[in-house]
Amino acid sequence: MLNIDIVMDAMNAAGISLESDISIEDNQNIGFEELGLDSLDLFNLFLELENITDRAVPDDEIDNFKTISDILTKY
């Protein structure tokens, strides 16, 4: 099962950085766009999550994930 640390590790491995004043732990329900993530960031994030977990999300289902919280509960 995923936890916030795994998602943060995947974000770091994907080269995704947030503004220094944004805390993922405190903003799990904020939309990816509001966090500054674009479609390429999300693609890279899910590639890294796949590498970490050996579980793939079909490309057409990635749009169903809107927040970090969605990743934690649906992935």
Question: What does this molecule look like?
Answer:
- With 75 residues, this protein is mostly helical.
- The chain has one domain: ACP-like (Non-ribosomal Peptide Synthetase Peptidyl Carrier Protein, Chain A).
- The chain has 4 helices and no strands.
- Helix 1 crosses helix 3 (39-53).
- The protein starts with a helix and ends with a helix.
- The mean pLDDT is 90.
Q: Whole-number average pLDDT?
A: 90
Question: How many individual β-strands?
Answer: 0
- The second-level CATH architecture is Orthogonal Bundle
Q: What portion of the residues fall into strands of 2 or more residues?
A: under 5%
In total, how many domains does the architecture comprise? 1
Q: Layout of helices and strands, plus pairs?
A:
Blueprint: H1 4-13, H2 32-35, H3 39-53, H4 68-74
Summarize the structure.
It contains four helices and no strands. By secondary structure, the chain is an all-alpha fold. The chain has a single domain, classed as ACP-like (Non-ribosomal Peptide Synthetase Peptidyl Carrier Protein, Chain A).
Which key terms come to mind for this protein?
single chain; about 80 residues; mainly alpha; Non-ribosomal Peptide Synthetase Peptidyl Carrier Protein, Chain A
